[in-house]
């Protein structure tokens, strides 16, 4: 996840057990989709009615590149008024997992719809230990990318000169790449030679 998850509690006592439960559930989501940008989880207690007393509400907001923010809500219902909060949290994340799996499958189909030999950029620089690098698009401009932006766990296979296809979006600090997929790894040496013919740009 590119941004650490945000967890908030309202009317509910924050405990290490609840934090651990939520973080474990987030880890499961990241196994379904490894390019989640951010996630916000809100756990609240509210009065449902005079007859049922306090109830719980869990909201999960997930941001994925080039997709509408995914929002999942789960609340206590009358038939489950004694349902413990951990169970409600698990149900909310299970629903989020199903929705995320559908979105990921749609994204995978979109990526596969492009020609296999369609190179849209080359890896210009990569900082392995720091977990990020820069692509150079065919028109010469540079694009930042994070290791979480790589599909199919291909981060470790990237080297300078590798041909890739990607989707570009505007981040807080300028253009950034998402959904990076290797196109032609064997030809990386020849591709890298072409980089010298592209105009040099300075990132601001």
Topology:
Blueprint: E1 6-10, H1 16-32, E2 38-49, E3 53-63, E4 70-75, H2 85-112, E5 121-127, E6 132-137, E7 142-146, E8 163-171, E9 174-184, H3 188-194
Parallel strand pairs: 1-2
Antiparallel strand pairs: 2-3, 3-4, 5-6, 5-8, 6-7, 8-9
Q: What do you see in this structure?
A:
- The chain has 204 residues and is α+β, with helices and mostly antiparallel strands.
- It folds into two domains: 107 residues, Double Stranded RNA Binding Domain (2-Layer Sandwich); 77 residues, OB fold (Dihydrolipoamide Acetyltransferase, E2P) (Beta Barrel).
- It is 25% helix and 35% strand.
- It contains three helices and nine strands; from the N terminus they run E-H-E-E-E-H-E-E-E-E-E-H.
- It has a five-stranded antiparallel beta sheet with strand order 7-6-5-8-9.
- Helix 1 packs parallel to helix 2.
- The longest helix is centred in the middle third of the chain and has 28 residues.
- The chain is elongated and about 60 Å long.
- 25% of the residues are buried.
